[in-house]
Amino acid sequence: MKKKNSVFIATSIDGYISDKNGGIDWLYSIPNPAHIDMGYAAFIQGIDALVMGRKTFETVLGFEVDWPYEKPVFVLSNTLKAIPASHKGKAFLLKGSLREILTQLHAKGLFSLYIDGGSTIRGFLKEDLIDEMILTSIPVLLGGGASLFTALPHQLEFELIGSNTYLDQITQHHYRRKR
Questions:
Q1: CA 91 to chain centre
Q2: Could you tell me the CATH superfamily of domain 4-15+36-177?
Q3: Rounded distance between C-alpha atoms, residue 53 and residue 121, angstroms
Q4: How far apart are CA 7 and CA 75, in angstroms?
Q5: Which of 21, 48, 114, 178 lies at 20 to 30 Å from 6 by C-alpha?
Q6: Looking at residues 33-47, what average pLDDT do you find?
Q7: Which is nearest to 90 in space by CA: 60, 111, 130, 115?
Q8: What are phi and psi of 59, to 5 degrees?
Q9: What is the mean pLDDT of residues 61-66?
Q10: What does the alpha-carbon distance between residue 134 and residue 8 come to, in Å, rounded to a whole number?
Q11: CA proximity to 136, closest of 4, 5, 12
């Protein structure tokens, strides 16, 4: 089976994934009365599991909705001691280097992974472990917050394989890593 690590995330047009206070309300600044999912359902169908950092996991736990994932979720954390009892069997704690974690997941037959959360994505990029990125740009300038990208040890080249526009304002670009 082909191994693939994918990112599906939204940013402001200045590259932030949360505002200066850690908020994400700006993601909903463009009215979406038809609740268009912008390709998310099709994307999530093609993955085996999610890999996210502790902060992203805690953010999702804070949403006032039922657990939004049907696929297994693996949480990377050096500080979290255990998954809350309410989410045992839905989310699993993993520790180790990113390559060790990938080896563990691949041994479980999980090859197509959704990498989520700023720190986690940045870590995978630093080790050149991202194969594709679907980046959705919301037309707002936040002027600060958590940036999706930071310094890398070397340049990574991607190729554009598709673009979409949603709600006449939101752009989405699908990139594949050139190897």
A1: 15
A2: Dihydrofolate Reductase, subunit A (3.40.430.10)
A3: 9
A4: 15
A5: 21
A6: 96
A7: 60
A8: -60, -45
A9: 86
A10: 5
A11: 12
Q: Work out the average pLDDT over 57-86.
A: 90
Tokens in use for 70?
A: 């049907």
Mean pLDDT, the chain, whole residue set: 95
Task: Output the six-digit token pair for 168.
Answer: 């006449």
Integer Cα distance of 76 and 52 in angstroms: 6
Nearest Cα to Cα of residue 119 among 158, 88, 85, 147: 147
Q: For 55, phi and psi rounded to 5 degrees?
A: -65, -40
144 backbone dihedrals φ, ψ, rounded to 5°: 155, 170
pLDDT at 1: 72
pLDDT at 66: 87
Confidence of residue 86 (pLDDT cuts 50, 70, 90): confident
Q: Rounded CA gap, 119 and 113, in Å?
A: 16
% helix, strand, coil for the chain, step of 5: 25, 30, 45
